[in-house]
Amino acid sequence: xxxxxxxxxxxxxxxxxxxxxxxxxxxxxxxxxxxxxxxxxxxxxxxxxxxxxxxxxxxxxxxxxxxxxxxxxxxxxxxxxxxxxxxxxxxxxxxxxxxxxxxxxxxxxxxxxxxxxxxxxxxxxxxxxxxxxxxxxxxxxxxxxxxxxxxxxxxxxxxxxxxxxxxxxxxxxxxxxxxxxxxxxxxxxxxxxxxxxxxxxxxxxxxxxxxxxxxxxxxxxxxxxxxxxxxxxxxxxxxxxxxxxxxxxxxxxxxxxxxxxxxxxxxxxxxxxxxxxxxxxxxxxxxxxxxxxxxxxxxxxxxxxxxxxxxxxxxxxxxxxxxxxxxxxxxxxxxxxxxxxxxxxxxxxxxxxxxxxxxxxxxxxxxxxxxxxxxxxxxxxxxxxxxxxxxxxxxxxxxxxxx
Length: 403
Ligand code: HEM
Fold this sequence. Notes:
alpha+beta; CATH 1.10.630.10; globular
Protein backbone atom coordinates (compact mmCIF):
# COMPACT_ATOMS: atom_id res chain seq x y z
CA UNK A 1 0.00 0.00 0.00
CA UNK A 2 1.47 3.38 -0.91
CA UNK A 3 2.16 6.18 1.55
CA UNK A 4 -0.31 8.49 -0.15
CA UNK A 5 -3.08 6.53 1.55
CA UNK A 6 -1.96 7.96 4.88
CA UNK A 7 -0.83 11.38 3.70
CA UNK A 8 -4.24 12.44 2.41
CA UNK A 9 -2.75 13.84 -0.79
CA UNK A 10 -5.23 14.41 -3.61
CA UNK A 11 -4.85 12.21 -6.66
CA UNK A 12 -5.61 13.11 -10.26
CA UNK A 13 -9.11 11.82 -11.07
CA UNK A 14 -8.85 8.40 -12.75
CA UNK A 15 -10.28 7.88 -16.21
CA UNK A 16 -13.80 6.41 -16.20
CA UNK A 17 -13.20 4.78 -19.61
CA UNK A 18 -13.59 1.01 -19.77
CA UNK A 19 -11.06 -1.31 -21.37
CA UNK A 20 -12.57 -2.28 -24.77
CA UNK A 21 -11.38 -5.88 -24.27
CA UNK A 22 -13.34 -6.20 -20.97
CA UNK A 23 -16.59 -4.24 -21.46
CA UNK A 24 -18.15 -5.76 -18.32
CA UNK A 25 -15.35 -4.73 -15.96
CA UNK A 26 -15.27 -1.38 -14.15
CA UNK A 27 -12.82 1.18 -15.58
CA UNK A 28 -9.32 -0.21 -14.93
CA UNK A 29 -8.05 3.11 -13.52
CA UNK A 30 -10.89 3.14 -10.97
CA UNK A 31 -10.12 -0.46 -9.97
CA UNK A 32 -6.46 0.51 -9.55
CA UNK A 33 -7.44 3.32 -7.17
CA UNK A 34 -9.53 0.87 -5.10
CA UNK A 35 -6.53 -1.41 -4.65
CA UNK A 36 -4.51 1.50 -3.24
CA UNK A 37 -7.08 3.72 -1.54
CA UNK A 38 -10.70 2.60 -1.00
CA UNK A 39 -11.40 6.27 -0.31
CA UNK A 40 -9.25 8.74 -2.23
CA UNK A 41 -9.28 12.53 -2.34
CA UNK A 42 -9.43 13.86 -5.89
CA UNK A 43 -7.54 16.94 -7.01
CA UNK A 44 -9.99 19.81 -7.66
CA UNK A 45 -9.43 23.41 -8.80
CA UNK A 46 -8.28 25.89 -6.15
CA UNK A 47 -11.20 27.03 -4.01
CA UNK A 48 -13.43 24.09 -4.95
CA UNK A 49 -14.77 21.88 -2.15
CA UNK A 50 -13.26 18.47 -1.43
CA UNK A 51 -14.26 15.62 -3.73
CA UNK A 52 -13.66 12.00 -2.70
CA UNK A 53 -13.79 8.86 -4.80
CA UNK A 54 -15.02 5.90 -2.76
CA UNK A 55 -14.47 2.43 -4.23
CA UNK A 56 -14.45 0.08 -1.21
CA UNK A 57 -17.61 -1.98 -0.61
CA UNK A 58 -17.73 -1.53 3.19
CA UNK A 59 -17.19 2.24 2.95
CA UNK A 60 -19.91 2.78 0.33
CA UNK A 61 -22.36 0.71 2.37
CA UNK A 62 -21.51 2.82 5.43
CA UNK A 63 -22.05 6.11 3.54
CA UNK A 64 -25.39 5.00 2.08
CA UNK A 65 -26.69 4.27 5.59
CA UNK A 66 -25.51 7.57 7.13
CA UNK A 67 -27.84 10.62 7.12
CA UNK A 68 -24.83 12.95 7.20
CA UNK A 69 -24.45 12.14 3.49
CA UNK A 70 -27.14 13.97 1.54
CA UNK A 71 -28.90 12.86 -1.63
CA UNK A 72 -30.04 16.38 -2.50
CA UNK A 73 -28.28 17.21 -5.74
CA UNK A 74 -27.66 20.81 -4.71
CA UNK A 75 -25.37 19.62 -1.88
CA UNK A 76 -23.11 17.91 -4.42
CA UNK A 77 -20.23 19.45 -6.30
CA UNK A 78 -19.99 18.01 -9.79
CA UNK A 79 -16.32 17.79 -10.79
CA UNK A 80 -17.17 17.81 -14.51
CA UNK A 81 -19.57 20.78 -14.27
CA UNK A 82 -17.16 22.51 -11.88
CA UNK A 83 -20.10 23.64 -9.77
CA UNK A 84 -22.87 22.50 -7.43
CA UNK A 85 -25.62 20.55 -9.16
CA UNK A 86 -29.10 22.00 -9.77
CA UNK A 87 -31.88 20.54 -7.57
CA UNK A 88 -33.55 17.30 -8.71
CA UNK A 89 -36.80 17.54 -10.70
CA UNK A 90 -40.02 17.41 -8.67
CA UNK A 91 -40.91 13.81 -7.78
CA UNK A 92 -37.36 12.41 -8.12
CA UNK A 93 -36.92 10.50 -4.85
CA UNK A 94 -33.21 9.96 -5.41
CA UNK A 95 -32.64 13.71 -4.97
CA UNK A 96 -34.44 14.04 -1.60
CA UNK A 97 -33.51 13.67 2.08
CA UNK A 98 -35.80 13.02 5.06
CA UNK A 99 -38.39 14.25 5.88
CA UNK A 100 -39.35 15.10 2.26
CA UNK A 101 -38.10 11.71 1.10
CA UNK A 102 -39.99 9.89 3.89
CA UNK A 103 -43.28 11.40 2.72
CA UNK A 104 -42.84 10.19 -0.88
CA UNK A 105 -41.24 6.87 0.02
CA UNK A 106 -44.07 5.90 2.45
CA UNK A 107 -46.67 6.72 -0.12
CA UNK A 108 -44.93 4.71 -2.85
CA UNK A 109 -43.80 1.77 -0.71
CA UNK A 110 -47.43 1.05 0.15
CA UNK A 111 -48.17 0.74 -3.58
CA UNK A 112 -45.47 -1.81 -4.40
CA UNK A 113 -47.55 -4.41 -2.56
CA UNK A 114 -47.04 -8.20 -2.62
CA UNK A 115 -50.46 -8.48 -4.27
CA UNK A 116 -49.51 -6.14 -7.09
CA UNK A 117 -46.09 -7.78 -7.57
CA UNK A 118 -47.80 -11.23 -7.78
CA UNK A 119 -50.19 -9.93 -10.42
CA UNK A 120 -47.24 -8.49 -12.31
CA UNK A 121 -45.38 -11.83 -12.21
CA UNK A 122 -48.15 -13.40 -14.27
CA UNK A 123 -48.03 -10.51 -16.71
CA UNK A 124 -44.21 -10.67 -17.04
CA UNK A 125 -44.54 -14.33 -18.04
CA UNK A 126 -47.22 -13.53 -20.64
CA UNK A 127 -45.43 -10.50 -22.04
CA UNK A 128 -42.14 -12.42 -22.25
CA UNK A 129 -43.85 -15.24 -24.17
CA UNK A 130 -45.49 -12.78 -26.57
CA UNK A 131 -42.20 -11.04 -27.28
CA UNK A 132 -40.36 -14.34 -27.83
CA UNK A 133 -43.15 -15.45 -30.22
CA UNK A 134 -42.72 -12.20 -32.14
CA UNK A 135 -38.95 -12.70 -32.28
CA UNK A 136 -39.40 -16.24 -33.60
CA UNK A 137 -41.92 -15.10 -36.24
CA UNK A 138 -39.57 -12.34 -37.39
CA UNK A 139 -36.64 -14.79 -37.62
CA UNK A 140 -32.88 -14.22 -37.31
CA UNK A 141 -30.96 -11.96 -37.21
CA UNK A 142 -32.49 -9.49 -34.76
CA UNK A 143 -31.52 -6.63 -32.49
CA UNK A 144 -32.26 -8.08 -29.06
CA UNK A 145 -32.63 -4.59 -27.54
CA UNK A 146 -35.39 -3.66 -29.97
CA UNK A 147 -37.31 -6.94 -30.03
CA UNK A 148 -36.96 -8.06 -26.42
CA UNK A 149 -34.87 -6.20 -23.84
CA UNK A 150 -36.67 -2.88 -24.29
CA UNK A 151 -40.31 -3.94 -24.87
CA UNK A 152 -40.57 -6.31 -21.88
CA UNK A 153 -39.86 -3.67 -19.19
CA UNK A 154 -41.68 -0.96 -21.19
CA UNK A 155 -44.85 -3.06 -21.22
CA UNK A 156 -44.37 -3.87 -17.53
CA UNK A 157 -44.16 -0.17 -16.67
CA UNK A 158 -47.42 0.28 -18.61
CA UNK A 159 -48.97 -2.45 -16.43
CA UNK A 160 -47.64 -0.94 -13.22
CA UNK A 161 -48.69 2.63 -13.98
CA UNK A 162 -51.89 1.71 -15.81
CA UNK A 163 -51.18 3.05 -19.32
CA UNK A 164 -54.31 2.14 -21.35
CA UNK A 165 -53.82 -0.69 -23.82
CA UNK A 166 -54.61 1.35 -26.94
CA UNK A 167 -51.91 3.90 -26.09
CA UNK A 168 -49.12 1.39 -25.56
CA UNK A 169 -47.72 1.35 -29.09
CA UNK A 170 -47.23 5.12 -29.06
CA UNK A 171 -45.83 4.92 -25.53
CA UNK A 172 -43.38 2.22 -26.57
CA UNK A 173 -42.26 4.10 -29.68
CA UNK A 174 -41.39 7.10 -27.54
CA UNK A 175 -39.58 5.05 -24.91
CA UNK A 176 -37.61 3.40 -27.71
CA UNK A 177 -36.45 6.82 -28.95
CA UNK A 178 -35.50 7.66 -25.37
CA UNK A 179 -33.42 4.50 -25.14
CA UNK A 180 -30.90 5.86 -27.64
CA UNK A 181 -32.66 5.14 -30.93
CA UNK A 182 -32.99 8.81 -31.84
CA UNK A 183 -30.88 11.94 -32.22
CA UNK A 184 -30.41 14.09 -29.06
CA UNK A 185 -33.19 16.41 -30.33
CA UNK A 186 -35.55 13.47 -30.91
CA UNK A 187 -34.70 12.06 -27.50
CA UNK A 188 -35.41 15.37 -25.80
CA UNK A 189 -38.72 15.73 -27.65
CA UNK A 190 -39.70 12.16 -26.68
CA UNK A 191 -38.77 12.87 -23.05
CA UNK A 192 -40.94 16.00 -22.93
CA UNK A 193 -43.85 14.24 -24.66
CA UNK A 194 -43.69 11.25 -22.35
CA UNK A 195 -43.52 13.50 -19.28
CA UNK A 196 -46.54 15.50 -20.51
CA UNK A 197 -48.42 12.31 -21.34
CA UNK A 198 -47.80 10.77 -17.90
CA UNK A 199 -48.85 13.98 -16.15
CA UNK A 200 -52.12 14.05 -18.12
CA UNK A 201 -52.69 10.37 -17.47
CA UNK A 202 -52.09 10.80 -13.73
CA UNK A 203 -54.52 13.72 -13.56
CA UNK A 204 -57.14 11.79 -15.55
CA UNK A 205 -56.86 8.99 -12.99
CA UNK A 206 -57.77 11.42 -10.22
CA UNK A 207 -61.18 11.68 -11.84
CA UNK A 208 -61.53 8.08 -13.09
CA UNK A 209 -59.31 5.74 -11.04
CA UNK A 210 -58.49 2.20 -12.27
CA UNK A 211 -56.66 -0.69 -10.53
CA UNK A 212 -53.08 0.47 -10.87
CA UNK A 213 -50.34 2.32 -9.06
CA UNK A 214 -50.95 5.74 -10.64
CA UNK A 215 -54.63 5.66 -9.63
CA UNK A 216 -53.65 4.75 -6.06
CA UNK A 217 -51.20 7.64 -5.95
CA UNK A 218 -53.70 10.02 -7.54
CA UNK A 219 -56.51 9.23 -5.12
CA UNK A 220 -54.84 7.87 -1.97
CA UNK A 221 -52.18 10.43 -1.09
CA UNK A 222 -51.68 14.14 -0.66
CA UNK A 223 -49.58 14.76 -3.77
CA UNK A 224 -50.09 17.98 -5.70
CA UNK A 225 -50.69 17.73 -9.46
CA UNK A 226 -47.08 18.69 -10.12
CA UNK A 227 -45.76 16.08 -7.65
CA UNK A 228 -48.03 13.40 -9.07
CA UNK A 229 -46.83 13.99 -12.63
CA UNK A 230 -43.22 14.20 -11.43
CA UNK A 231 -43.40 10.86 -9.59
CA UNK A 232 -44.97 9.18 -12.64
CA UNK A 233 -42.17 10.42 -14.92
CA UNK A 234 -39.54 9.44 -12.34
CA UNK A 235 -40.92 5.89 -12.08
CA UNK A 236 -40.73 5.52 -15.84
CA UNK A 237 -37.09 6.63 -15.83
CA UNK A 238 -36.17 4.50 -12.81
CA UNK A 239 -37.78 1.29 -14.01
CA UNK A 240 -37.30 1.19 -17.76
CA UNK A 241 -33.75 2.01 -18.82
CA UNK A 242 -32.34 0.04 -15.88
CA UNK A 243 -34.19 -3.23 -16.46
CA UNK A 244 -33.85 -3.02 -20.26
CA UNK A 245 -30.09 -2.66 -19.95
CA UNK A 246 -29.84 -5.48 -17.42
CA UNK A 247 -31.63 -7.81 -19.85
CA UNK A 248 -29.51 -6.77 -22.84
CA UNK A 249 -26.12 -6.49 -21.13
CA UNK A 250 -26.85 -9.65 -19.11
CA UNK A 251 -27.52 -11.54 -22.35
CA UNK A 252 -24.33 -10.12 -23.88
CA UNK A 253 -22.31 -11.27 -20.83
CA UNK A 254 -23.82 -14.76 -21.08
CA UNK A 255 -23.13 -14.93 -24.81
CA UNK A 256 -19.47 -14.11 -24.09
CA UNK A 257 -19.29 -16.93 -21.54
CA UNK A 258 -20.62 -20.16 -23.11
CA UNK A 259 -20.23 -22.24 -19.93
CA UNK A 260 -22.37 -19.81 -17.90
CA UNK A 261 -24.85 -19.50 -20.78
CA UNK A 262 -25.24 -23.30 -20.86
CA UNK A 263 -25.51 -23.49 -17.06
CA UNK A 264 -28.53 -21.16 -16.98
CA UNK A 265 -30.12 -22.59 -20.14
CA UNK A 266 -29.90 -26.17 -18.83
CA UNK A 267 -30.94 -25.38 -15.25
CA UNK A 268 -33.62 -22.68 -15.01
CA UNK A 269 -33.59 -23.37 -11.24
CA UNK A 270 -30.39 -21.35 -11.25
CA UNK A 271 -32.28 -18.19 -12.22
CA UNK A 272 -32.59 -16.51 -8.79
CA UNK A 273 -28.88 -16.76 -7.98
CA UNK A 274 -27.88 -16.03 -11.56
CA UNK A 275 -29.79 -12.74 -11.53
CA UNK A 276 -28.08 -11.61 -8.30
CA UNK A 277 -24.70 -12.47 -9.75
CA UNK A 278 -25.40 -10.62 -13.01
CA UNK A 279 -26.58 -7.59 -11.03
CA UNK A 280 -23.33 -7.64 -9.05
CA UNK A 281 -21.05 -8.40 -11.97
CA UNK A 282 -22.53 -5.80 -14.32
CA UNK A 283 -23.48 -3.04 -11.79
CA UNK A 284 -25.24 -1.00 -14.46
CA UNK A 285 -26.03 1.90 -12.06
CA UNK A 286 -22.29 2.44 -11.97
CA UNK A 287 -21.87 5.45 -9.67
CA UNK A 288 -23.78 7.61 -7.21
CA UNK A 289 -23.03 10.84 -5.40
CA UNK A 290 -23.73 12.26 -1.96
CA UNK A 291 -23.07 15.68 -0.39
CA UNK A 292 -21.36 15.76 3.02
CA UNK A 293 -23.54 17.67 5.54
CA UNK A 294 -21.25 17.55 8.61
CA UNK A 295 -17.60 16.77 9.33
CA UNK A 296 -17.22 12.98 9.28
CA UNK A 297 -14.43 10.49 10.02
CA UNK A 298 -14.49 7.78 7.40
CA UNK A 299 -11.87 5.05 7.41
CA UNK A 300 -8.77 7.02 8.30
CA UNK A 301 -9.98 10.13 6.47
CA UNK A 302 -11.63 13.29 7.71
CA UNK A 303 -14.31 14.67 5.40
CA UNK A 304 -15.65 18.20 5.82
CA UNK A 305 -19.14 19.61 5.54
CA UNK A 306 -19.57 20.78 1.94
CA UNK A 307 -17.44 17.99 0.45
CA UNK A 308 -18.82 15.54 -2.11
CA UNK A 309 -18.37 11.78 -2.33
CA UNK A 310 -18.50 9.91 -5.65
CA UNK A 311 -19.48 6.31 -4.99
CA UNK A 312 -18.10 3.86 -7.57
CA UNK A 313 -20.61 1.10 -6.94
CA UNK A 314 -19.28 -0.95 -9.86
CA UNK A 315 -15.81 -1.06 -8.25
CA UNK A 316 -17.35 -1.88 -4.84
CA UNK A 317 -19.24 -4.83 -6.30
CA UNK A 318 -15.87 -6.20 -7.49
CA UNK A 319 -14.15 -5.59 -4.14
CA UNK A 320 -12.11 -8.72 -3.29
CA UNK A 321 -12.59 -7.90 0.40
CA UNK A 322 -16.29 -8.71 -0.09
CA UNK A 323 -16.46 -11.15 -3.02
CA UNK A 324 -13.75 -13.78 -3.59
CA UNK A 325 -12.47 -13.91 -7.17
CA UNK A 326 -14.67 -10.87 -7.91
CA UNK A 327 -13.95 -10.48 -11.64
CA UNK A 328 -15.26 -13.95 -12.51
CA UNK A 329 -18.90 -14.28 -13.54
CA UNK A 330 -20.07 -17.28 -11.54
CA UNK A 331 -23.82 -17.83 -11.64
CA UNK A 332 -23.58 -20.31 -8.76
CA UNK A 333 -21.96 -17.77 -6.45
CA UNK A 334 -23.80 -16.39 -3.40
CA UNK A 335 -23.77 -12.76 -4.59
CA UNK A 336 -25.98 -11.46 -1.76
CA UNK A 337 -24.86 -8.16 -0.25
CA UNK A 338 -24.11 -6.52 -3.61
CA UNK A 339 -24.95 -2.83 -3.94
CA UNK A 340 -26.51 -2.90 -7.42
CA UNK A 341 -29.85 -1.69 -5.99
CA UNK A 342 -28.15 0.72 -3.57
CA UNK A 343 -28.48 0.50 0.21
CA UNK A 344 -30.15 2.44 3.03
CA UNK A 345 -33.23 4.62 2.75
CA UNK A 346 -32.93 5.03 -1.03
CA UNK A 347 -32.52 1.33 -1.77
CA UNK A 348 -34.38 0.58 -5.02
CA UNK A 349 -38.12 0.45 -4.48
CA UNK A 350 -38.66 -1.52 -7.69
CA UNK A 351 -36.07 -4.20 -6.99
CA UNK A 352 -38.61 -7.01 -6.56
CA UNK A 353 -40.23 -6.09 -9.86
CA UNK A 354 -36.83 -5.92 -11.57
CA UNK A 355 -35.89 -9.32 -10.14
CA UNK A 356 -39.18 -10.86 -11.33
CA UNK A 357 -38.59 -9.48 -14.84
CA UNK A 358 -35.00 -10.74 -15.01
CA UNK A 359 -35.74 -14.15 -13.47
CA UNK A 360 -38.47 -14.74 -16.03
CA UNK A 361 -37.00 -13.06 -19.13
CA UNK A 362 -33.42 -14.37 -19.16
CA UNK A 363 -34.07 -18.13 -18.73
CA UNK A 364 -37.08 -17.94 -21.10
CA UNK A 365 -34.89 -16.37 -23.80
CA UNK A 366 -32.17 -19.01 -23.49
CA UNK A 367 -34.67 -21.90 -23.40
CA UNK A 368 -36.56 -20.66 -26.47
CA UNK A 369 -33.36 -19.94 -28.44
CA UNK A 370 -30.77 -22.46 -27.16
CA UNK A 371 -28.47 -21.69 -30.10
CA UNK A 372 -28.59 -17.90 -29.54
CA UNK A 373 -25.30 -16.21 -30.45
CA UNK A 374 -23.90 -12.82 -31.44
CA UNK A 375 -24.42 -11.86 -35.09
CA UNK A 376 -21.35 -9.58 -35.07
CA UNK A 377 -17.87 -9.85 -33.52
CA UNK A 378 -18.11 -8.97 -29.78
CA UNK A 379 -16.04 -5.81 -30.14
CA UNK A 380 -18.56 -4.46 -32.65
CA UNK A 381 -21.39 -4.44 -30.10
CA UNK A 382 -21.97 -0.71 -29.40
CA UNK A 383 -21.70 0.13 -25.71
CA UNK A 384 -22.82 3.19 -23.80
CA UNK A 385 -19.70 5.27 -23.29
CA UNK A 386 -21.10 8.00 -20.99
CA UNK A 387 -20.12 7.04 -17.42
CA UNK A 388 -22.91 9.18 -15.95
CA UNK A 389 -25.59 7.07 -17.69
CA UNK A 390 -26.91 3.64 -16.82
CA UNK A 391 -24.43 1.25 -18.45
CA UNK A 392 -25.51 -1.02 -21.26
CA UNK A 393 -25.50 -1.79 -24.97
CA UNK A 394 -27.08 0.43 -27.63
CA UNK A 395 -28.02 -2.62 -29.67
CA UNK A 396 -27.29 -6.34 -29.49
CA UNK A 397 -27.31 -8.07 -32.90
CA UNK A 398 -28.07 -11.77 -32.35
CA UNK A 399 -28.85 -14.78 -34.49
CA UNK A 400 -29.93 -18.41 -33.90
CA UNK A 401 -30.68 -21.66 -35.72
CA UNK A 402 -34.31 -22.04 -36.72
CA UNK A 403 -35.82 -25.04 -34.89
C1 HEM B 1 -32.27 -3.90 -12.77
C2 HEM B 1 -33.02 -2.85 -12.65
C3 HEM B 1 -32.81 -1.75 -11.63
C4 HEM B 1 -31.65 -1.28 -11.06
C5 HEM B 1 -30.22 -1.78 -11.30
C6 HEM B 1 -32.03 -0.21 -10.16
C7 HEM B 1 -31.12 0.51 -9.37
C8 HEM B 1 -31.49 1.45 -8.43
C9 HEM B 1 -30.57 2.11 -7.53
C10 HEM B 1 -29.06 1.88 -7.47
C11 HEM B 1 -31.29 2.97 -6.75
C12 HEM B 1 -30.76 3.84 -5.61
C13 HEM B 1 -30.40 5.21 -6.05
C14 HEM B 1 -29.78 6.06 -4.93
O1 HEM B 1 -29.34 5.54 -3.90
O2 HEM B 1 -29.71 7.28 -5.12
C15 HEM B 1 -32.68 2.87 -7.19
C16 HEM B 1 -33.71 3.62 -6.67
C17 HEM B 1 -35.03 3.52 -7.11
N1 HEM B 1 -35.54 2.63 -8.03
FE1 HEM B 1 -34.49 1.21 -9.02
N2 HEM B 1 -33.39 -0.04 -10.20
C18 HEM B 1 -33.91 -0.96 -11.08
C19 HEM B 1 -35.24 -1.15 -11.41
C20 HEM B 1 -36.30 -0.42 -10.90
C21 HEM B 1 -37.70 -0.62 -11.23
C22 HEM B 1 -38.25 -1.70 -12.17
C23 HEM B 1 -38.41 0.35 -10.57
C24 HEM B 1 -39.89 0.63 -10.55
C25 HEM B 1 -40.68 0.67 -11.52
C26 HEM B 1 -37.46 1.13 -9.79
C27 HEM B 1 -37.78 2.17 -8.97
C28 HEM B 1 -36.89 2.85 -8.15
C29 HEM B 1 -37.29 3.93 -7.27
C30 HEM B 1 -38.70 4.48 -7.07
C31 HEM B 1 -36.11 4.35 -6.62
C32 HEM B 1 -35.97 5.51 -5.62
C33 HEM B 1 -35.95 5.00 -4.22
C34 HEM B 1 -35.67 6.11 -3.23
O3 HEM B 1 -34.93 7.05 -3.54
O4 HEM B 1 -36.21 6.00 -2.14
N3 HEM B 1 -36.19 0.64 -10.03
N4 HEM B 1 -32.76 1.92 -8.20
